[in-house]
Amino acid sequence: METPTRSRLDALRQVTAAVDRWRGDDRATTSDELVAEEPLEVRALARVDGHASAETLAVIMRTPGHDDELAAGFLFSEGLLRARDELAELVPGADPDGLPSDNVIDVVAAPHVDIVARMRESGYSRQFAVNASCGVCGKNSVAAACATLPPLPDDALRLAPAVLCALPDRLRAGQQVFAHTGGLHAAGLFDTSGNLLALREDVGRHNAVDKLVGRALLDNALPLSQRVLLVSGRLSFEIVLKALAAGIPLIAAVSAPSSLAADLAQASNITLVGFLRGASFNIYTHPWRVAPQASG
Q: Of 16, 75, 96, 126, which is most buried, counting CB atoms within 10 Å of its CB?
């Protein structure tokens, strides 16, 4: 079989592979579009007396694209960056030979922030590949998460059921790479009128969320207290944790939440909606945010 090559449709995020396609007893050699999955090394870059040194913080298996958002959102949701003014810049990194690399990004913190020291002081340890399918949560319990991130306040956000039910179709309509590959997760950020404000796709569902959070951080738009998050797959503990860090009060998914995701949402005053399909859905925590008379 031929080695997969960059796709003409979307050379950054897709590859074209030769396949043997069977339909019953019929066999044909053809091509198929696959979603790209590559490692992104996120490094802390320090410059002292004209010399630069970089230390790896994490290697994230991701779909290329919006890498600056992914790095910023990842570090924010993990607590290594706490505000926009702690980030000076994000710059493309270099490989061991000193050549520019599409799979390395260097994080330059503000002068008063030492990300590496913060990582070590907190006992944080993610200097390894972060699996794209499920992530590796640095917090081992709901209590630990809530000790770091307090519950969200009771806010004015209310969402009408009809608006909620319209969100999956609007998300799906914006999934350009999924339409070609069928192999990507998506996360979308909506306002209370159901308008899609931002959409990110990635082989990892939590990466897609990090890209949205990173965009908001870079735009100095956090917290996202009047926004709704919709993800295309299941709801994990880590996704709820990232939403909590970003201040998102309502999270929905077309599939099921895990028990730990529901526990964290309950403790954090987040409304958690699952199995959002057609005109039906389940609300697992804080149902008062979904109200028939609500409007954007």
A: 75
pLDDT for residue 80: 93
What band does 2 get if pLDDT is binned at 50, 70 and 90? low
25-49, pLDDT tens digit by residue?
A: 888 888 878 878 889 999 998 876 6
Cα 275 from Cα 262, distance rounded (Å): 13
Torsion of CA 200, 202, 206, 209, to 10 degrees: -10
* CA–CA separation, 49 and 122 (whole Å): 28
d(Cα 22, Cα 231) in Å, to the nearest integer? Answer: 32
In CATH terms, is domain 161-289 a member of 3.40.50.2000? no
Task: Give ranges for CATH 3.40.140.10 in the chain.
Answer: 161-289
Instruction: List active site positions.
Output: 134
Q: What is the pLDDT of residue 181?
A: 61
Domain with CATH 3.10.20.10 in the chain: 38-140
Tokens representing 97 are 């030979």
Quick one: fold of 38-140?
A: Ubiquitin-like (UB roll) (3.10.20)
Q: Looking at the DSSP assignment, which residues form a beta bridge with residue 44?
A: 55, 107
Give residue-wise pLDDT tens across range 187-226.
Answer: 999 999 999 999 999 988 899 999 999 999 999 999 999 9
Across 86-90, 119-123, 292-296, least confident range? 292-296
Q: What is the pLDDT of residue 130?
A: 53
